[in-house]
Specification:
Layout lengths: L20 H4 L2 H17 L11 H21 L7 H20 L14 H28 L11 H33 L3 H4 L9 H6 L2 H10 L5 H21 L3 H17 L5 H22 L10 H9 L4 H10 L2 H10 L10 H7 L12 H5 L2 H9 L1 H5 L8 H9 L1 H22 L3 H14 L11 H5 L3 H14 L13
């Protein structure tokens, strides 16, 4: 029986948040002022003057918003290696990467075809408003999600066994899926993955089973703090899975299992040092991601020869700036959405979220799921902006920020930021100290963190199917392991 606090990174609660935060930094006041000013510029009387504002001021304000988000994390008693911290870091890379690149040598290239500087300024201000509102959600969420003392946690064994059971079902489908993707990439390059036929309905059940692989490994990892063999096995499987996906050409879906594994390890095994986090992030951003981008369209031996890899990396021109520009290009989805809505498409008023929720139901009785047939926000955008790319199955990605505007306009930025900030903080507080909930949140994060550059259809099944299933199985195992009848006292014979 393991005490919920023994060996854990202590649960971040309002009680152990820094007591002098209010005296040193009136964080809510600054965040509210920043959000109010940004909202007034985007939707108020200053809107026509956006193009006249120097871009340096706009990009600088955007980066300042992230500084206040770090202070908000600190005031909530959590670190960057938390659910809100990781989501903010992803938002910085994919929606504000160009804001960082702006202050590096050389001017910024256009954000996208047909987009002017004013369009980019609006997109950057939209990101700024969301980040300020996320910080407000963190500050106020720490009061709402206050918790008392934790009970003794006995869920480790059930969590590990549930993970092992589902891993046994998912391992072979995952291996076949990885092998097929790698063969396609070696033969036809990364673009060949999007031209291959995607199975649907019952025929897609094999692919669905393979999606349980990473969540099941995370459940095994979370429940193996005192079991070194399973801890090493699950971690080795996660790393191997990510390495294969890197070789295929994926970056986001390759990195997310590693990030989720770090989060689970940090919360259920032992705290991870900041030096390791910084070093690992630097390797991914400065070495792995640029190389994957360069090799995506390569085929055959060019992908595997060491000399080719070294030469490719040496030929890179300013890998820091190039990766920031590429990843930060996700902001163009915000700019395009603002240009098209409501001019060419009405506001969704929550419908895109509703149809994303419908993906909980499997597509057993139709060739295309109703959500896919209606068109997801990401598919709509690429079909409108780049029909040729859409025709071959390619995409532009999307953003939770763009989807917020697609549904509710400028007010959607406020709503999305505040709700996400407080909800992610609640998730962090609730999971701490309980192995089963740590595994559930870790599995969910392996899908949800991609929301920084996707629409909401990308994570609903990740929660409802691939994260909740092992969690519910773990609950069932815990219930079955308890005696059904209370022990009866023995009568001593006279």
């Amino acid at each position: 029986m393991v005490n919920s606090r023994a060996g854990f990174n202590d649960a971040p609660t309002p009680k152990n948040a820094p007591s002098g935060t209010k005296a040193l930094f009136p964080i809510p006041l600054f965040c509210f002022a920043g959000a109010l000013v940004t909202f007034a510029v985007l939707a108020g009387p200053f809107q026509p003057q956006i193009e006249a504002i120097p871009q340096g001021y706009i990009h600088g304000l955007s980066l300042l918003a992230y500084v206040f988000s770090l202070l908000a994390l600190w005031s909530a008693g959590i670190t960057a290696l938390s659910a809100p911290g990781l989501f903010l870091f992803g938002t910085l890379l994919f929606n504000s990467g160009r804001s960082i690149a702006y202050f590096l040598p050389h001017p910024l290239p256009p954000l996208g075809q047909g987009l002017a500087e004013g369009d980019e300024s609006r997109a950057v201000l939209a990101v700024t408003l969301v980040v300020f509102c996320m910080s407000l959600g963190l500050v106020f969420g720490k009061r709402f999600f206050a918790q008392g003392p934790k009970a003794i946690d006995t869920s480790a064994n059930a969590t590990r066994i549930a993970g092992i059971a589902i891993l046994a079902l998912a391992a072979l489908p995952a291996f076949i899926s990885l092998r097929s993707s790698l063969d396609t990439a070696l033969s036809h390059g990364y673009s060949g993955l999007y031209s291959s036929e995607v199975s649907t309905g019952i025929d897609g059940s094999w692919r669905v089973l393979s999606s349980f692989f990473i969540p099941s490994c995370l459940f095994v990892l979370a429940g193996s703090r005192t079991t070194a063999t399973w801890r090493r096995t699950s971690l080795g499987l996660i790393v191997s899975y990510s390495l294969v996906l890197f070789a295929v050409g994926y970056r986001g879906w390759s990195a997310l299992p590693l990030v989720a594994a770090c989060w689970v390890w940090h919360h259920s095994v032992r705290p991870i040092s900041r030096r390791f986090v910084v070093a690992a992030s630097a390797v991914l951003l400065l070495v792995v991601f640029p190389l994957v981008r360069e090799f995506r369209q390569s085929t055959g031996r060019e992908r595997t020869e060491a000399s080719s890899i070294v030469n490719k990396y040496r030929s890179l021109d300013s890998p820091i700036r190039s990766i920031l520009l590429e990843m930060g290009g996700t902001a163009n989805t915000i700019a395009y959405t603002e240009k098209l809505v409501p001019r060419e498409r009405d506001f969704e008023l929550g419908n895109s979220y509703l149809f994303s929720a419908l993906t909980i139901f499997p597509n057993l009785f139709w060739s295309l799921h109703p959500t896919v047939e209606r068109g997801t926000p990401s598919r709509w955008l690429v079909a409108t902006i780049n029909p040729a790319e859409a025709a071959i199955g390619g995409g532009m990605g999307y953003s939770f920020i763009a989807e917020a505007y697609l549904n509710f306009g400028t007010f959607g930025y406020v709503l999305a930021g505040f709700v996400l900030g407080s909800a992610l903080l609640g998730i962090e507080y609730t999971a701490a100290g309980n192995v089963r909930r740590v595994a559930l949140v870790g599995a969910f994060l392996s899908f949800f963190l991609f929301y920084v550059r996707d629409d909401s259809t990308g994570w609903v099944r990740g929660l409802a199917w691939f994260s909740l299933s092992p969690y519910l199985l773990s609950l069932l195992l815990t219930r079955l392991s308890k005696p059904r009848w209370p022990a009866m006292p023995l009568k001593l014979a006279r």
